[in-house]
Structures are given as structure tokens and as C-alpha cells.
Amino acid sequence: MTVRPWIRRVRRAILATGTTAVLAAGLLTGAAVPAQAAAQRPCDLYAAGGTPCVAAHSTTRALYGGYNGPLYQVRRASDGATKDIGPLSTGGYADAQAQDTFCAATSCAITVLYDQSGRGNSLTQGLKGGGWPGPAAGGNDNLANAFEAPVTVAGHRAYGVYIAPGTGYRNNHTNGIAVGDQPEGMYAVFDGTHANDGCCFDYGNAETSGADTGDGHMEAIYFGTNTGWGRGSGNGPWVMADLENGLFSGVNRGLNTGDPSINDRFVTAIVKGEPDRWAIRAGNAQAGGLLTGYSGPRPGGSGYHPMHKEGAIILGIGGDNSNASAGTFYEGVMTSGYPSDATENAVQADITAAGYSSAPTGSGSLTPGSAVSLRATTACCTSDYLRHDDTDTKVVISAVGSSGPATDKAAAGWIVRAGLANSSCLSFESADRPGQFLRHYGFELYLNADDGGGNFAQDATFCATPGNSGTGASFRSVNYPTKYLRHYDYTAYVAGNGGSNAWDSASSWADDTTWVVGRPLA
Ligand code: AHR
Ligand code: AHR
Fold first, then answer.
1. Which mutation among 245, 248, 310, 321 tests ligand 1's pocket best, with the greatest number of atoms within 8 A of CB?
2. How far, CA to CA in Å, does 504 sit from each of 415, 447, 494?
3. 127-176: per-residue pLDDT in tens?
């Protein structure tokens, strides 16, 4: 409800401008939108195909060439204040700097994913009771940490929605979303490397009650490795359709080999459905076209033909709010009508042209997005670099020469990220193991996958300071501010200058906690 005043404002603003009035009319009536001077973004393409968007969500970019409203809202931990993050320009990319500035020296959560379609179908925290007329399995869902899914789009920094288990968004009071057996389409762009087998990382149509009301009461995109109901070829993850009480990879439950595993870093995932027909399509969101994993009749069984869609929208959870799943969402839409393959192919071309990338944007400096190496400065060890171990999850220092194995150089590469628990500090993501961060546990350093939790964020956040030995840089633990990133006996810790652990030894503490930040070796 909190988003409604904005929706009215944006509608007025759109209607007030001459060039976008035609687009707005197209949006509101579902009519085809004539060619615009503005670039054709996914929702312009769906409208041109006669299947307009009725919901459009993205934290990275505008999904209409004429859209200039907010993309999402963040709330900061320090004072609970909120801020809308918009595109840098009409039809453009998210203003990540606005988030960085607003969240400086604290952490932020994503509170709203605004609906760009003008229908008010924004997504907010999935709640148990309270805001929703039904139960949420597992209680209220968590909000996503706004810094946990950094990305670049067309060279612009942006942030995706990092769904750790327990996280979820929902809207049970929608406008214009398919109900019953009405036709609809949807696509989403996900991180293909961030998935699990928990139920159910979904985006799409679900129950308005927040409860499982039976077969055919959902029609959502699923992405992950769950094999409890269905699976495709290989080991996953797969794009499947969550039709309620079943993740379907084809017409039958279980294995359908036509639905391939998708391992691309960025994935375009599509599900669409109309009376007795539905399809799964998927592709690499960075290049190439879409394949069709399934297209054909509805699954057998009473509930799926005709369908009983209810028209709520979920992100990161199952229809009954099951929230054991993990994934990352960058953008997605739902349409009115069954989109043609040709329309979806045009949308895929726009997505690949948008240039999603997780590659570093610079090198050698302590700036978020930059790739760095961290070289030890103690006299023993000036050829040694901080690196993750190959054999376990520990973090060590070892000599990594320029002519040494490429795997060693890669293991010594770090991408600087805004601190997960304090955006004015830093986190270090492994350059060769995306999604895994340097973190302390029991004051020892490990490379672990981000679990999205507050403890992890704290353990993975370090504040850069001038080097304790008078040169280079040191990295202070945000939750144990007397402890700094240190090597001791060639293993990495957070260590105090004197203390109860062996690695707190005051001997050569200043040198051991001082690092030279340089360009990556690989
Ligand atoms: O269909 C798979 C899941 O089963 C749904 O998402 C959920 O509502 C139920 O638990
Ligand atoms: O590394 C010190 C603490 O050990 C971490 O904060 C915590 O995750 C673990 O108990």
C-alpha cells in the first residue's frame, strides 16, 4: 500500500509528457505500442507483440524505454530511513551510487521492488499474517541485503536481489495478473551460479492467500536444483515451472531430458502458459538465443487443466511461502497474454545487449568492483599473497610467482565489494569462486559462500585503514574492531595486537597485519 501514492504520481507524470503519452496509453489499455524514439526495452517489445507487461521488476534497469520512476527502495539499518533508487536516465540503468551514498557507513536492505508497469504490482517483504491474509510457511520472510549481489550492466554498477534461504517478496493484491486459465508469460534474469535445492526459488504467479490451495493454483518460473518433483538432464540447476505441488520440467513429473541444466553466470528463464499449453524456455543472458526446454500440453492430473491461477506475485519463495531456497534476481516481468517465441527472442536480444557482467570494473585499488591482490609485507614473506587454499576452505599466504601455476594466481585474486555489513568498509569476493567471500569464523579466515545472514555479513566485512606498520593498508574486522586481517604461520586470521590466541602474538603484529594492495596476478 505504501507504494500507491508513487504510482499515482508516476502515472500523472507519464501522462503529462507528450512523447511518452502513447506508451502510457499502450500500457494502460494493453494496445500495441507504436515505435518510439526511446529504446525498445523488454516491456516495449512485449507490448509490440500484443502481450503487454502487467508487472515489471528490476533493481538494475528500466524495463520500458520511457520509464523514469523508481526501480526499488532500500532501508538503512542506522536510522530506518528509506530511499527510492531510480534509473540514471529515462529508460536507463540503476543509480547504484545513490544507494552507496544513502547507505554509507551502515547496511541496507531492499524493501520494495517497484512495478514499472504502472499497475501497482510492486513486491514487498513476504509476511506471516499481518499484511497478508494467509500464513507464510516459516514465518515472515527476510529482506535481501542491498549489497549482496553486485553486478555491472552496460558498464554501470548495479545491485541484484540476493535471495538467501529465508528471504522472500510477495504481492497478494495485484492488478491485471492472469487468473484461472488466462494466458500469461514471464521471464526473469537470474544468477545461474547461485542456486540450491530448497523449495522454491520462484518468480511469478501464486496464491493470493499465501497458502497451498492445490494443483494448478500457481504458474511461476522456478530455478534451482530441487529434484523432489521434477528435474531435467544433467545435475541442474534447471528452469522449471512451479505449477503448485510440482516443479515441472515437462509434461510428466520426474525426469524430462529436454530440459537442460543451465550453468551460465547469467540466465534468462521463461515460463508461459495458456489453456492446455505451456512452455519453458531458457538461455544465456549474456549471449545467444533461447532454447525451448518444453512446449506442449498441461501435465495430466485433475488440477492442471484447466489451471486455477490466483494472480499473486512471488519472488524467491514458493506459493505457500516455503523459503528454503536461494538465488539471485536481476529483472523480470509478467505479461497479459501468451507471448510468441518471436517476442521472447527479441526480449532475449535486448537482455544480451544490456551487457550483464560480474567481471571487475577496475584493477589494483580498494574501490568496489576492483580486482586486487594482497601481498604480505613481513620480511619473511614479501613474495607471498593472500589466497584461498585449494584443498579446504581456509585462507593462507603463499608465494605466487608470475611464472607460477595459473590456478595459484587465480586463487590469490579478490574482487573488492562494498562491505556487506557496512558499505563504507569492504568485503573481498574470490575472483575465481564467485559468491564466496573472505570471512572470519572462530577468528580464523575462511572462504565461504555468502549465506545472506547478518553474522556472515559482519564476519565478511573489513574496514581499510593505513597500514599498521606505516606502509600499505590494514583491514580491521568490523565486528571485532581491535582485530585485523593477519597472517601467522602462513595462515590467515583476524588478530589483536596481543591476546589469547597464538595468532594474537604481539611479535611482528604490525608487519603481519600490513598488506600491499596491487593488481591481480591472473
Ligand atoms: O510446487 C512446489 C511447491 O509446493 C510450491 O511452491 C509450494 O507452494 C508447495 O510447497
Ligand atoms: O571469528 C570470530 C567469530 O567466530 C565470528 O564472528 C563468528 O561467526 C564465530 O563464532
1. 245
2. 27, 21, 8
3. 865 444 444 555 689 999 999 999 999 999 999 999 999 999 999 999 99
